[in-house]
Amino acid sequence: xxxxxxxxxxxxxxxxxxxxxxxxxxxxxxxxxxxxxxxxxxxxxxxxxxxxxxxxxxxxxxxxxxxxxxxxxxxxxxxxxxxxxxxxxxxxxxxxxxxxxxxxxxxxxxxxxxxxxxxxxxxxxxxxxxxxxxxxxxxxxxxxxxxxxxxxxxxxxxxxxxxxxxxxxxxxxxxxxxxxxxxxxxxxxxxxxxxxxxxxxxxxxxxxxxxxxxxxxxxxxxxxxxxxxxxxxxxxxxxxxxxxxxxxxxxxxxxxxxxxxxxxxxxxxxxxxxxxxxxxxxxxxxxxxxxxxxxxxxxxxxxxxxxxxxxxxxxxxxxxxxxxxxxxxxxxxxxxxxxxxxxxxxxxxxxxxxxxxxxxxxxxxxxxxxxxxxxxxxx
Length: 379
Ligand SMILES: O=C(O)CCC(=O)C(=O)O
Ligand SMILES: [Fe+2]
Fold this sequence. Notes:
Bound molecules: 2-oxoglutaric acid, fe (ii) ion
Helix content: 25-40%
Family: Belongs to the iron/ascorbate-dependent oxidoreductase family.
Domain Fe2OG dioxygenase: 203-322
Organism: Capsicum annuum
Number of domains: 1
GO molecular function, one term: 2-oxoglutarate-dependent dioxygenase activity
Number of strands: 14
CATH architecture: Sandwich
Strand content: 15-25%
Distance between the termini: 25 Å
Structural class: alpha+beta
InterPro entries: DIOX_N, IPNS-like_FE2OG_OXY, IPNS-like_sf, Oxoglu/Fe-dep_dioxygenase_dom, Plant_2OG-oxidoreductases
CATH superfamily: B-lactam Antibiotic, Isopenicillin N Synthase, Chain
Strand order of the largest sheet: 1-2-10-7-12-5-4-3
Radius of gyration: 20 Å
CATH class: Mainly Beta
């Protein structure tokens, strides 16, 4: 077992006010710290073209057509809705209710679980690195859930019951689901399933619970700044009927309407594979590189959350990634004098630390990982 301290200090944020509390006051004019002119604010396109819907039961039965749909979804959209995913309604209902109850606790109670200096886990915000940076119109509760030795005990063991038990149940079910999805992706790419299982089997899992209060000037703020997820896979659950997730496709923001009982799944940066190189990737076996390079092009897509003036919105993003002590970088076997490495190879822990030490900025973290840039991702 590795030392918790060293591994788990993934980087924190500067303290910010609780937006939920701000939104309770009378807000004639929202504070300028939240007003954005740096975002392409909500251009709502009602489009028939929307993210593909994948039926997990068909994948389990080996339906070739469904695998083709999955492959298309990951190449063209980087996002899909997953139905018949096997996670029980009772667990989902529990996590929805208990998360809502958690955010409804008095501020004093939530503050007992606030982020400690330099930590990501806890109640607060992420990616706030300067006092004059624009802020998102949201509060966040972040929990590292797996492997258990990475949990922050000063947060995890102080979660109120039944929230704690619910989080454990939900985390366990979503780990199983993430591994199944990764298995399916390995199949669509003809990758060695054993190898993938070794890489992801005891992977890192974390939850980001997002609370977006209503805002009197919803089109002047942003709930969650445009970003891509620096993980392998994200499983998103929307907790109430309010919509807000938007994804960027061909330069246009498309709103997503979650289907009842579906999860929204998206490919993270670590699974992004582009045409010429395995971008932020792992040491795949040689024969696999070839397959990925030629068949790949799974996309990690920019997305964001917008807010509305009527009602709060809640979501839980459950992130799944490789083992914590893995090296992340271009596959050594594809590196040669002719094809030099374009991306750094660093430990997953440093990669994550570097991601959280910056403010969110579209997909720019991939640029930091590029060797020609001098900024050190872990500093
Ligand atoms: O709230 C949402 O719909 C998006 C959340 C998200 O993208 C995240 O937490 O990374
Ligand atoms: Fe995200």
